[in-house]
TrEMBL record:
Residues 62-601 form the Hydantoinase B/oxoprolinase domain. PANTHER family: 5-OXOPROLINASE RELATED (PTHR11365), HYPOTHETICAL 5-OXOPROLINASE (EUROFUNG)-RELATED (PTHR11365:SF23). Residues 17-29 have a biased composition (Low complexity). It holds the Pfam family Hydantoinase_B. Residues 17-40, 655-684 are annotated as: Disordered. It comes from the Bacteria. This is Hydantoinase B/oxoprolinase family protein.
């Protein structure tokens, strides 16, 4: 018997996080019938205990102490992230802040909710708690052995156990997107990869530090495989040291109040989240079943096509957790069924989501539900931690789809799927609540250049530029935001001093936001003039399909990159590009996506269109075309001709078809759908 199977066989039966009962199915996806020798879809043992309460149901704890513990957890999480930001080296970690931290209890439940994080499950699967020691640091980035917590190989994850009384009581974890972990192209994200082997070095869970002593052999292997070894070594050291510091802080909390008290507070924190979402969020969705789908547009290998991601959402008022006098048949719950999702792609847009009952995806998607809160202020107060997990059941299709890929399918551009799923959930909920959800927002795109600097040294600059968020039923979308919390564009002063190019423009992309009663947020427009010959790279979606509008709102403008703007070799670059040549002196123009609009743009008040003209967010031509507003003057002093605008709006309304779909996908959809302007699921 292999070591991993032997250790698995001695552990407790798995506990389904949604129900609290022992169990998973024969395919490892979280339903009854699983025993201690079963394996998950990757062939790995899943017989490890997780998801249980730490204290008996009904255990009392001082609510003031719960507030103290909750505040301490948030403080430690922020301190860990601050330490990483201040001591790391690569632009992606230090400057762009593409990393996250999380705190989990010994039942592997995520306690903090300021941002998403990876999972502890694969570490505990391979290293029993009893074999862990103080000062240990565990490492992994293997997509298929991460239980769904790691989406692509550049996301490196470190996990540190917290000890109290000689036993593991919690975990501090950090993972971030690193510059390079090997593979076929600089940055480890080959756009046309056909297997995970082309994407870089894949490391299953290992003990990277043993009781405070780093494993220099493992570190040397990783840095030897990287084109940026110094940055990789420095970033890993920063993350390990920060998590060890966080573990010490948490150990002090246990020492101060005692293990029983702290664990009771942990349960109370998660119980509070469960009850809040049950009472304030799920109750806003009418009982019933709703279906919607959206698409990725290309996978880097096949020609552009519709790669479907479908959600069938079922809301019921019973069957969920919390059986009591108030909920004798259980409280409300959601079932998210991904049946109908398209087949596994040849290229790297797949995501391994069907592990641990979809535990990672539940916490990844749940923030969308916060939009149902009574007010925007209340929405901002709601965290997403393990307390949302019992309220959601996920059902996955058989192996071999975009969400259930078969090893060794490539995954480096999996954001095309998991970020699209945020929009699919928003769309299917919008159908249930008459559109009281945001329109579609930007998705992550990686752009950058690489080559030799003026001293002949290799360099790699990558950036994760944001885009516009969707219009909402009460407000416009936000400009140039990013779905990754606290992330940012790279400072011009930094990039110009380190890399051989000049940033000649960084501003808003005019007219990029989808028209609507509430306009979609605008994307970026960035111009980079190269000082040395180089190669441009891009891993981006939404270059054909646009961020959709809802309830009469129009789609935003898609992503676009142009090389040699205004020059003799001006050309549009494909959104998936590994090595587009750019000569010294040529300008690269990057325009990121605008968010979708919400509501009829012909209902947008004239004074708001005038303000957009004054602020330069909408052009005079765009105001006429998209909003039916005739204006004269200039940007400093625009003047709306009310009579002419009233007449134009009346004409535009008369030219519309009598019936319109609930969602507007923009003209790119028809290009990929054989001329069909909308999907069947777009109508309500």
């Amino acid at each position: 018997m292999c070591f991993s199977c032997q250790t698995a066989a001695t552990r407790l039966a798995p506990v389904d996080a949604a129900t609290g009962s022992s169990a998973t199915t024969a395919d490892g996806r979280g339903a009854p019938g699983h025993d201690a020798t079963s394996v998950n879809p990757a062939g790995l043992p899943t017989a490890y205990e997780h998801g249980n309460r730490l204290t008996p149901e009904g255990t009392s704890v001082d609510p003031i102490l719960v507030e103290i513990v909750q505040g301490t957890l948030a403080s430690v999480e922020m301190e860990v992230e601050t330490a990483i930001a201040r001591t790391s080296r690569s632009p992606m970690i230090r400057d762009a802040h593409d990393f996250r931290a999380g705190i989990h209890d010994r039942q592997l439940r995520k306690l903090t909710g300021r941002s998403y994080s990876a999972l502890v499950h694969p570490v505990v699967r391979d290293f029993p708690l009893a074999e862990m020691g103080e000062g240990d640091v565990f490492f992994h980035n293997d997509v298929y052995e991460s239980e769904g917590g790691i989406g692509h190989l550049p996301d490196l994850c470190v996990t540190v156990p917290v000890f109290s009384g000689g036993e593991v009581v919690a975990f501090v974890q950090a993972f971030g997107h690193h510059d390079d972990i090997g593979g076929a192209v600089p940055g480890s994200m080959p756009s046309n990869a056909r297997s995970v082997f082309e994407e870089g070095l894949s490391v299953p869970p290992i003990r990277l530090w043993d009781k405070g002593v780093p494993n220099q052999a493992a570190l040397r292997i990783m840095t030897r495989n990287s084109r940026m070894p110094d940055s990789l070594a420095a970033d890993l050291d920063a993350e390990c040291s920060a998590c060890l510091m966080g573990a010490r802080r948490l150990a002090e909390l246990f020492e101060r109040y005692g293990r029983d008290t702290i664990e009771a507070a942990f349960d109370a924190i998660l119980d509070q989240t469960t009850e809040t979402y049950r009472r304030e969020i799920l109750g806003k969705i009418p009982d019933g079943t709703y279906v919607w789908e959206d698409y990725a547009e290309h996978d880097g290998v096949d020609e552009p096509m519709l790669h479907t991601q479908r959600i069938t959402l079922t809301k019921s008022s019973t069957g969920g957790p919390g059986r009591s006098e108030q909920y004798p048949d259980g409280g409300p719950r959601l079932v998210i069924d991904f049946t109908g999702t398209g087949p596994q792609a040849k290229g790297p847009i797949n995501h391994c989501g069907d592990y641990v009952g979809g535990n990672f995806l539940k916490k990844w998607l749940a923030p969308i539900l916060r939009n149902l809160a009574d007010t925007p202020e209340r929405m901002a107060e709601l965290d997403v931690n393990e307390g949302v997990v019992p309220l959601i059941e996920m059902r996955f299709p058989e192996k071999g789809t975009l969400l259930t890929p078969i090893y060794p399918a490539p995954t480096n551009a999996r954001t095309f799927v998991i970020l699209r799923l945020l929009g699919v959930l928003a769309g299917v909920v919008a159908k249930a609540v008459d559109g009281r959800m945001p329109a579609d927002q930007e998705t992550i795109r990686y752009t950058g250049v690489y080559g030799k600097d003026r001293d002949g040294n290799d360099y790699l600059m990558r950036e994760v530029l944001g885009g516009g968020s969707g219009g909402r039923y009460y407000a416009d979308g936000e400009d140039t935001i990013h779905v990754v919390p606290d992330s940012r564009n790279l400072p011009t002063e930094f990039t110009e001093s380190r890399f051989p190019f000049l940033v000649e423009r960084l501003g808003l992309a005019v007219d990029s936001g989808g028209a609507g009663r509430h306009r979609g947020g605008l994307g970026y427009e960035k111009h980079i003039r190269m000082l040395e010959d180089a190669h441009f790279m891009s891993i981006a979606d939404r270059s054909i399909l646009a961020c959709w509008g809802v309830k009469g709102g129009k789609a935003g403008r898609p992503f676009e990159v142009t090389v040699d703007v205004g020059g003799p070799e001006e050309r549009t670059v494909d959104a998936l590009a590994d090595a587009e040549p750019v000569r010294a002196g040529q300008v690269i123009r990057i325009r990121t996506t605008g968010g979708g609009g919400w509501g009829d743009p012909l209902d947008r008040p004239y004074d708001e269109v005038e303000r957009d003209l004054r602020w330069g967010k909408v052009s005079f031509e765009g105001a006429r075309r998209d909003y039916g507003v005739v204006a004269t003057g200039d940007r400093d002093e625009p003047v709306v001709d009310v009579a002419a605008s009233d007449a134009l709006r009346e004409q535009l309304r008369s030219e519309r078809p009598d019936a319109q779909p609930f969602f507007d996908r923009g003209p790119g959809y028809a290009r990929l759908a054989g001329g069909q302007p909308s999907a069947d699921v777009d109508w309500v």
